[in-house]
Amino acid sequence: MAVPRKSAMDEFETAFQNLTSALRDQEHFNNAVSEEVKTTAEINVQKFTEATHQLEKYFLEKKLQIMQNRPVETLNEEINELKLELERKDTLIKNHNENLVKWINTLSSNSLSNRGNQIPNVQVSRGPGMPQHPNPSPGKAQGPLASLEATTSNIGLGERR
């Protein structure tokens, strides 16, 4: 009679139990520097690593079978994951825009109290597709560095002495 082969999960569980039992065994704490303890630990870690790879292989094979047999479910799952990622990124963009408005207001209030100059009110908003940026004035340099230079000159950091 043939011995039934253990499943990948059973092998993983056994390897994990062997690895943790070495940590719980009082005998190992008494002989912490012995070569036997080190060898046993290395063997247990190696077996656990192999069992982990076998379990990963098992799950990848099952995922491949599902993808081949039920492509619609796979597509629906991917679509849901993409929707969740878009929602997360929209929330992140909203938080960044809120922080940007706070920093612009802080810089504006500091500049007005220090120099008495007026800085144009900048509003940060985002449309359904892309972030909206103010249109550059004709004849002025365009791009993020030009915008930074204009902002710093308004608060007194762009002046050369």
From TrEMBL:
Transmembrane segments: none
A family per Pfam: Med28
Taxonomic lineage of the native organism: Eukaryota, Metazoa, Spiralia, Lophotrochozoa, Annelida
Main localisation: nucleus
UniProt-annotated stretches for the region Disordered: 112-161
Alphabetized UniProt keyword annotations: Activator, Coiled coil, Nucleus, Transcription, Transcription regulation
Localization (cell): Nucleus
GO terms under cellular component: mediator complex
Coiled-coil intervals, chain numbering: 72-99
Biased composition (Polar residues): 112-124
InterPro entries referenced in this protein's UniProt entry, alphabetically: Mediator_Med28
Family designation: Belongs to the Mediator complex subunit 28 family.
Name of the protein this chain belongs to: Mediator of RNA polymerase II transcription subunit 28
